[in-house]
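Hi V.,

You were right to ask for the full record rather than a summary. Here it is.
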Amino acid sequence: MIFVTVGSQKFQFDRLLRAVDDLVSGGCVDGGAFAQTGACTYVPTHMRHEAFLGRESFRAHMGACDVVVTHGGTGAIIGAVKSGKKVIAVPRLSKYGEHVDDHQVEIVCQFGAMGLIEPCMEPADLSNAYARVIVNDYLPYQSNTERFCADLSEYIDEIGGVR
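Predicted structure:
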């Protein structure tokens, strides 16, 4: 099953919802799909959907899916990867009124280059990205929080501690 999340910001991402709806209608997705549609105006016809999900409902849908299809926000990507899900991330683009700038392009490219996700730069290429994500393996997420805290503590000790 696919879980689609477009986030909770005020911007629509109709291009992505249409692409997933088309993918599901083509019969390529085992188990169907569920979409958290946010501020989108497009209403999916081939998958269940809800505009906004509470925390528990979001976790339940994340837990039940095999693949997460998401916008290029860091929180959505990291949350899905931390959950051990295969992720297809599609950046929102400003020219379509999906965001104020194109920073998500860089985010998606970086996570893809790290081998954590399947980047999909255009929703029109979603079927190809889905075919790749099903057969490819991705690196697990590894937090560097402990290393960062240790480095920070060492630095503070070196400069004489906190005064």
